[in-house]
Amino acid sequence: MGHGGRSTHQLTHTQLRVVGPGHSVTATVGQDVVLPCHLSPQRDARTLEVKWIRDRISETVHHYHNGEDLYREQMGAYAGRTELARDGLSAGSLDLRITGLRPSDDGQYVCTPHALPPATGADPHLSLGSYEAGGVRVLCRSAGWYPLPQLLWRDTRGQHLPSVSQTHSQDQEGLFEIEGAVIVTGSVEGPLSCVVRNSRLQQDQGEVSLATALVLTQEKSGSCSSTCGHG
């Protein structure tokens, strides 16, 4: 039984390689076998789409996508006999187990991972937080991004302001939500902007501005302008 590895998609800024054993995998009819494959450099593969195919006939042996095994395209000869090892996915392992080997299983197998395409999320949403450290905490949140975006704060001169906190989460579709906070004090003059940027496309999304003077004069229970929700 032969085994090969191939990468057909740029997964990050630098090209990842798909690495196989470099030699044929030998097994006995009736036994189970694991075809090894891993990503180099190592990265979490749980949100990738992974296909194992028979090389010469280009038919699907196993199809995995974002945490689920998909069987619609699978060759009937492999039904109920394949499994992508879950315990190694977070470390970039794409090993395929085939059970109950048959003489017809002999051949070349190709492991092909695909990353999620870049996704530009929603316009950033600004909201007011609590009063602290002599100023007001302002929050910026945006969801629906892939890969994990950058969140930046800018003053009226375009200078970057440091975030006091930044968190992110990933949904079941593999898309990211990011939230950042900055403390606005009287030393910050003019409009304050939050920019969320797709690090792969280098595209800024929906620069949202909030007047600093408005933030500093709001009471905790007061209303906010149409561009800002109260936190």
A few lines on this structure:
This protein is mostly beta strands and 231 residues long. The chain has one helix at 212-217, and strands at 4-5, 17-19, 33-35, 38-40, 49-54, 59-65, 68-70, 82-84, 96-98, 109-114, 125-132, 135-145, 150-154, 160-161, 165-170, 176-184, 191-198, 203-211, 228-230. It has two domains: 4-114, Immunoglobulins (Immunoglobulin-like), CATH 2.60.40.10; 125-220, Immunoglobulin-like (Sandwich).
Describe the fold and architecture:
With about 230 residues, the chain is mainly beta. Helix content is about 5%, strand content about 45%. The protein contains one helix and 19 strands. The chain starts with a strand and ends with a strand. Mean pLDDT is about 75; it is low at about 1-15 and about 205-230. Pfam families: C2-set_3, V-set. This is Ig-like domain-containing protein. InterPro entries: BTN3A2-like_Ig-C, Ig-like_dom, Ig-like_dom_sf, Ig-like_fold, Ig_sub, Ig_V-set, IgSF_BTN/MOG.
What attributes does this structure have?
single chain, mainly beta, Immunoglobulin-like, five-stranded mixed beta sheet, disordered N terminus, disordered C terminus
CATH class of the largest domain, named Mainly Beta
Q: pLDDT under 50 segments (min length 5)?
A: 2-15, 204-231
**What is the terminal-to-terminal distance?**
60 Å
Mean pLDDT: 75
What is Rg? 25 Å
Tell me about the largest β-sheet.
5 strands, mixed
Number of strands: 19
Secondary-structure element series: EEEEEEEEEEEEEEEEEEHE
Helix share bin: under 10%
* Large-scale geometry: rod-shaped
Q: For the record, what is the CATH homologous superfamily label of the largest domain?
A: Immunoglobulins
Protein name: Ig-like domain-containing protein
Domain Ig-like: 14-112, 113-209
Keywords: Disulfide bond, Immunoglobulin domain, Membrane, Transmembrane, Transmembrane helix
GO molecular function: signaling receptor binding
